[in-house]
Amino acid sequence: MKRRAFLAAAGAASTAGLARAAGMEDRPGAAGFAGVAGAAGLAGVTAPTATRAQTPAGPAARGTATRRTILAIGAHYDDCPFGIPGILLQAIARGHRVVILSMIGDYTNWKPVRGRGPALVEGTERVNADVGVESRFLPWASGRLQATEAHRRAVAEVVADVRPDDAFMLWSRDQHPDHEVASDLAKSALHLGDRVLADPFAPFVTPRRTYLYDNGPRHTIGFVPDTFVDVTPEWPRAIAWLGRLMAVTRDTAYTDGALDGAQRLKESLARYRGATCGVTYAEALSAANAYPQSLY
Ligand SMILES: [Zn+2]
Fold first, then answer.
1. Which of 116, 148, 246, 274 is most deeply packed, by most CB within 10 A?
2. For 198-251, how does the pLDDT look when each residue is reduced to its tens digit (9 = 90+)?
3. Would residue 28 count as lying in a domain?
C-alpha cells in the first residue's frame, strides 16, 4: 500500500472516538497494509514457556536484589508505552533500569505532528523520564526503516551499549510495515548483534530472556501470547503514561480522567488480557524461547 494512504489515515485520526487511536504514530485505518504483511513469523524461534505464568520471570528472578537492565524496543515512540507500560513500570518499581529504544526518531514526515517532529521526540523523552525510563532514538523516519546491514548494525550498537539482561520487541507480523521491519531488526540485533558490529569481538551481552509484545487490534497479526503479567496495581500510572504521550502528540495539556482513543484501545486490550488470565488488567507476551518458571 502506498505510504501516502497510511499517512492520510493517520492524519485523519485527530477525530474523536476509537479512530483517535490513529493519533498514535502507527494506527492506520481499517484495511491498511494487508498486502505487505506476509513476512514470515518467528516460527521455529517462538516457543511457549514451560508453563503459563503470570510473571515474565519466575518469583526467584523477581525477588532478586540484583539490578537488571531491561531494553524495550519499538518502531515508534509510543509502541512500548502502548504495549507494555505496566510491565516496564513494575521493573522500575523493583529498581531495575529500563531503556526504551524507538528506532524511528525523525517524525518530520508524519502529518499529525507537522512542524513539531523534534518536539514530539523531546516530549517523549520528558514523559518517559518522568516515569523513570531512559529514551533512545535512532535517526530514521517512518517508511524509511529498512532491513539492511547498516540498520541492523545501528540497532546492535544500541544493544551493545545498553547491555540488556532482558529485552522486549515487537511481534513479527503486523499490518504496519514499520513494525515488521523493527521486529526483524530487533531480532537480529538482540541475538546476533555482535556479528554485525564493526568489531564482532567487542563486548556484547545477549539478553537472558526476550519477549515479544503486540501492538493491539488492527495492527498485530496472529499473536498468541503464552505469558501474562498482572498489571492491575500499575494500571492508573500505565494508562496515564500513554495519555501523556498522546497529549504531547496532540500538543495539548494532559488531564487525568477522560481517556482518549489510544487509551481506550489500550484499556480494552488490557481488560481482555486480564480476563484471559483472571485479573482486572494484564499485558501479554510471547516468549522468544522456552524459559523455566518457578511455580512454588
Ligand atoms: Zn508503532
1. 246
2. 999 999 999 999 999 999 988 999 999 999 999 999 999 999 999 999 999 999
3. no
